[in-house]
């Protein structure tokens, strides 16, 4: 059975992958609090991104993906909070035309139709 890839922490505190040439199959990352096992297709994709110069190593790529996912979830959560607040505020007595005119005044937009 082939040895899985090994991970180690560098002096700078980043995770680096140690691959032996005999390593076959999924790339395995061991972090202090987790264990990641990648299918070959994802391993190949991540390694391709690093080899193309987009990231310095696969760990940087994974960290970037996690940061972007975190930002996406935070934006969705903030938007959902705005929607919940809007729904809780009830219905307006203003017409659509009045609401549009008020929004244009607030944005200081003039529109000649």
């Amino acid at each position: 059975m082939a040895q899985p890839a090994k991970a180690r922490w560098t002096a700078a505190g980043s995770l680096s992958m140690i691959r032996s040439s005999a390593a076959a199959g999924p790339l395995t990352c061991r972090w202090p609090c987790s264990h990641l096992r990648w299918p070959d297709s994802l391993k190949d994709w991540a390694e391709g991104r690093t080899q193309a110069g987009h990231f310095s190593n696969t760990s940087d790529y994974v960290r970037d993906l996690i940061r972007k996912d975190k930002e996406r979830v935070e934006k969705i959560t903030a938007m959902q909070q705005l929607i919940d607040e809007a729904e809780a505020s009830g219905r307006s007595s203003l017409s659509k035309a009045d609401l549009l005119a008020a929004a244009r005044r607030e944005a200081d937009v003039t529109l000649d139709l």
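The beta strands are 6-9, 15-18, 28-31, 34-37. The mean pLDDT is 76.
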